[in-house]
Amino acid sequence: MKHISAAACGSLIILATACSDNQWHIKGSLDGGEGKEILVQATDNGRWYTLDTITTGKNGKFDYSHQAMGRPDVYRLNLDGKNIYFPIDSIETINIAANDSAFDVSYTISGTPAAETMMQVDKILRDAVVTKGAQYVATDSVLKRELAQTILADPSGIVAYYIISKQINGQYLFNPATRTDNRVIGAVANAYSEQRPADPRTAYLRQLYLANRMAMNPGMIAPSDTIQASELAYFDISLTNQKGDTLTLSDAVNRNKVVILSFTAYTAETSPAYNALLGEIYSRHHNQGLEIYQIAFDDDEFQWKQSANNLPWITVYHPGTNGPQLLMNYNVQGLPTTFVITNGQITDRVSDPTTLSSVIARHL
Q1: Alpha-carbon gap, residue 157 to 112, rounded angstroms
Q2: Fewer Cβ neighbours under 10 Å: the N or C end of the chain?
Q3: Does position 232 have pLDDT exceeding 60, yes or no?
Q4: Max Cα distance, the chain (Å)
Q5: Which residues are paired to 46 by β-bridges?
């Protein structure tokens, strides 16, 4: 047997203490919930996964620790599908007291100002859903002004990011496609860029803000348009045309050899020239198996419909309430943006519309 000296043992104790200090802690109680299993969950780009399982002890008490991740993040406790969200900055201790029968409603969080603020934000949102209905929360201007004040009080904080990324009834509380909301997102993106440049959320926030800023200002030049789409599958799209019919991109792709996927805004100054160019290509190649699936990001749906009635190809509308996911899926940083889908694969991202004709001819 190998013996360890007292000095070495002391070093091990110091090392163990140092390691244990680099942890965050939850001290909690679950009223009426002795022997219950609570999941500790973290998120990765919106996908929640389980870190550990806590089993409550006598009187519902529990104590949990986890290695610090080196940056602020949002975690949650999950009990039978009900969630309590809380922020962790580094190595703090969070205190959570909850009720077994009303886990995601009857609870308190303390320990840090951020944790208490997040609890208050969720309480405000719960109350708004109860009194006004989930479908109206994202459009409640008074509520959003209150939340904006919370965000701007600490725009580089994890609570600001939490509110920006929060969805109610499938709708973002702050819709990047709305000018006033996008200004708040821009403030958070700017604060993260200045104070948290290495945080993985910083790039996401900048992309979210800039993509939608350029969608609302089509004349802007994109900071980068170097991403090339080469032999990539596509994200399907399902939107309604000017007649109210739901049309999918996949149906157009399945029926045609080549599809031009066009992201545009009909009210932009460049739109008439761009659509005229598309019209020439469509007339020349439609009978050879070409279709155009065009998505409009206009603020005025009525004006879009008037323009769409005069176009021979597929035209669909993307309302602002749908959020930014479609733009992010295709990394759209400015309008118009054009892709070519050939035999079910994205083969080209065309940054210069004047070259589109030769690209299409190459595939037909």
Answers
A1: 12
A2: N
A3: no
A4: 88
A5: none
Bridge partners for 263 per DSSP: 295, 337
Antiparallel, parallel or unpaired: β 258-264 and 47-55: unpaired
Q: How far is 205 from 162, CA to CA, in rounded Å?
A: 12
Residues 6+ apart with CB under 8 A from 138: 168, 169, 171, 172, 173, 175, 321
Rounded Cα distance between 199 and 49, Å, is 20
CA distance 242 to 300: 13
CA 128 to chain centre: 22
Nearest to 53 by CA among 69, 41, 44: 41
What pTM did the predictor assign? 0.56
Q: What is the per-residue DSSP string for 119-182?
A: HHHHHHHHHHHHHH-HHHHTT-HHHHHHHHHHHHHSTTSHHHHHHHT-EETTEESS-TTSHHHH
H or E stretch at 74:
strand 73-79
3-state class (DSSP) for residue 98: strand
Q: Count of CB atoms within 10 A of residue 167's CB?
A: 11
Alpha helices in the chain (DSSP H): 6-21, 113-132, 134-137, 141-153, 158-164, 179-195, 200-216, 249-255, 271-285, 301-308, 325-329, 356-363
Mean pLDDT confidence for 259-288: 93
Tally of CA atoms within 13 A in the half-sphere of 353 that contains its CB: 21
- Which pair of tokens denotes residue 243? 């007649």
User: Which tens digit of pLDDT belongs to each residue from 296-337?
Assistant: 998 888 889 998 999 999 999 998 777 777 887 787 767 888
Kindly list the structural domains of the chain, giving each domain's residue range(s) and its CATH number in brackets, ordered by start.
Answer: 19-111 (2.60.40.10), 130-216 (no CATH), 238-363 (3.40.30.10)
**CB 363 within 8 Å of CB 291:** no
Element at 30 (helix H, strand E): strand 23-31
Supply angle C-alpha 72, 16, 11, rounded to 5: 135
Give the whole-angstrom CA distance, residue 279 versus residue 29.
66
Amino acid identity, position 257: K
